Fold:
Amino acid sequence: MSLAVEASVGPDARWPTTIPVHVRIRNDGEAPVRVARRLAVGYRDADGRELFAEVHPPGSDELVSRQTKLYDRDPAKPEEYVPLAPGEELATDFDLIRWYALPGPGSYELQVFYEGDGMLAPQVDGAARGIYASGRVPFDLPEETWSA
Amino acid sequence: MSTHTHAEQEQVPEAPVPEASTVPAMPVALMQAHAIAAGSAQMARYALSRQPAPAPAPPAAGALNDAQATDAVAWTNRKYDELSIGIIQHIAAVPADRVFTEATAQAVATFQQTNGLLVDGKVGHQTLTAAFPERVGQSGHDQLVHIVADLEDIDITTTTSAVRFDPTVAVRGQSEFDPSGLRVIKLGAPAFQSSRILRDTLKAQLLTRAPAAAAAGPVPSILDDTSTAIALIVDQVALSHPHSIQALSVLVGGPRITAWNEDLVQRLAANQQANGRTGDGIVDVGTLEVLVRQLIANNDNNGAIRMIVDFFAFDDMDNLTTIYFDPTETANAETLPLSSGEENQPASIQVGPAGMAQPFAGLVHTIEHEFSHVRLMRQNETDIPTQEFLSEAIEMTSTITPQEDIAGFMNDADRGEAQWQRMPVDRQIRHRDRFLEVREEVRRRHAASTAAEQATNQAIVDRWNNVVLPAGPPGP
Structure:
């Protein structure tokens, strides 16, 4: 059972208005695996989410992304866990800056994580276990400029 | 010097608190925990008042001389309300006690100096604009709307139910109208370029006019004069916010009005009868549920939220900037902004479609839960598991809101116990009594449920029963 998480940051990322992130979750194994289809974003130490993110300065382990809200979301329902055949993938988009504050414009590295069996998540037969991380994705975050 | 010239605002006087000598000694932390548990505004205010007094402001030793600092204090206290001062204190990176002192003025001056602005200790448009990017980057849009409206004395509440950031709006602003005729202002990212642009956008959107109201139907005659008069008295207490009354009046086929009258009571009675209830014209919890369901079905989500907040009189400890329905919200609800290391943030609540789709009791509890967060943010509770445990506890032991069914209750219990396990020991010690109180309720609800429900939820109850509470004296 193996999932590959791939993340990318859109070229129109601007501080502080938007940081569009595209995430793909692919079954890299040889057997089907169940994944929570909704791919809801939240925080590492929270429930009611399948995805969370971390942002670091380039080449550093310092965590610079900060939580910006307290949210109340139910865990995914068992029927929301859909089978992914080998090679099949799910994808979603979210705006990183609606969930995480960053220090300002600059260069960063983004890592996105999938965890379908986190706190309070239902026990679903065949579901992926544990946390799957993307590679660190470097991205530039220029300051928003406004036309007159 | 700041250049804006709008009318000055008067400060709202503080609510009175008990004299210290008349109240028995009680640890502040314990008192605050009780206040949170009870949702008691008076007790919470008192608990705050019993915190050690902040050190007296040091002599103005910064960018401003004494006269400038004094002038900045007087100016700010005339201009801004307490929530805005709290926001200013976050901008100036000083403790957000909501009191603007000479020390705060010096901190503002330092911020101005750092940003190459005119240094006067007064937060006008230039200073606010310098703070915009960081606030926007922390999802602090509602704070910025509040402070700009406060600075410019822009009325964003009387005819407007919500002003919200909408990332799908590409222009500065758009307006739409709730079925009640109240305006919803949607602000795109371009509105947050600067303080003045936000001001101008708000003012422009306020010029939009609501569609004409539908003609009111004939006033039914369900109740006699005495019953109407009694209902009127009760209803004026049950729902007093003008937005609640406006949403109700339109819902029941009346004209857009913002205060109760006999006709509205009669229309409510007719609506009750049409929905299978006794037509007594009185808003009780059962009637509220029927009304909220109708409002949601009519897409008046802001009306439904306002009516719930109004009826249950949830306390925000004067820390709520705004609450509204956000169709782009992916959670049931959220409270924001939250940023580690920045305590005591003026907060807002956004309720999403999933929250509105819950059974009535679940929706009420969701809103009650978020109000708990708002109070805890006011009380500087920065530990997130503690925030969540206490807010689940509010839902599970509330005596003012309808009980959730056993599934909903056990869902809260499941989450509450998980959060308890993640709390630091000092917080667990501080909230031991609260834990015990909630555990008793978990046991009671479990014992009162059916055998099948007991079997379903046994594992959750076992987890509560297996918690070993930490020993030790409560900390300060």
The two ends of chain A are 53 Å apart (CA to CA).
